[in-house]
Input
Amino acid sequence: MKKTIQLFVPVLAVVLSGCSVGTQPATTGQPQLPVPGGLVSKNEKGSVWKSEDAGLTFQVRSTVDANRIIDKADILSIAFHPTKPKSIVLGTVDDGVFKTDNGGETWLPIPFPPKRIYSFIVDRRDPDNRMFVSGVVNGRGKIFRTDDNGSNWTEVYTEPGNETFVSSLAQDPWNAEVIYAGTNAGTLLKSLDAGATWKNLGSKTEYGIISNITFDAKRHDSISFITYGQGMYHSFDGGNTWIDWKTVKAEEARARALQGKGIDQSAANATDAPGQMLTLVADPSRSGVLYSGTSDSGIYRSTDDGKNWTKLNIIESAEKFPIRSVAVDPRDSKNIVFVAGKTFYRSTNEGATWSVTALNSDRSASVVSYDPFDSKYLFVGLRNFK
Output
């Protein structure tokens, strides 16, 4: 049963009353760099950082108004308006949703009823008005939809008990009515009518926390997702059936052994699938190409929908940190970026070499995104990982 929540509180007051927006003067400008003698100046506060030179430098872009900034909000995700440059929406863990129409110069809070957010998406067909957000109300995981830019939220899905929440949301890039949702208990759902009704796509205890549902650049029904810190699954038919590549490869190896055939050289040259996947992203231009950041072994690339993987030669010290976000330039697949700890990394040759930019921030980076309209603009969100 749908439930609509009417919000009468002025937009700005709803989120500003929380802990994310500070009362100290807003700060922007170039991050402070190390000075001679090994001294490093004080870290800058601000939950959102922006680069205007393809990642060579970053500036804090967390201003709400002249006296307040988004300084402690934990950024969950960054979404761009599909047709309006400079229009961006932020989802935070505990402090609601923020929107900018000027490329991050100032942010406006959008009220959202639940305190805690787990996933959100901006509708591709009606981005000025419609968003989907998963959150928790009274201990129960729910999905909400707004059709009027946050003035009202309609509850379109709820979990039956208090043990589970909706950990991931994704919208089909070719059909805006199709929404996928995954839970922390391994249940995968699909809606064909923008959340009005849902159907189950299978539930297995080994799935674990479903996250990073992603779509192939060319094939409409080719979808992948990861189970946080565990493994990956792929579908070639819009989620009706799912492939566990580890199982498939084991069966292929047994079949070759029974037939007396030698080792599959292409598989032998590939690295085993990353064991502790934290993020999964599809190349926006090349079909079949996926990247995965891991908890303690770096970044991996697959060119066959995740069946085989090759480890990228990133800087060794970065591998000691969880790599929670990887992004591929939507205009040039040779450009790959990722964040680890308080540092930004960029490659212009598909991962052969990397440039490094320090973020003098007070927390670790949680998400990095390319601006789809101009690749020289990049945004990084920060988060306090406990």
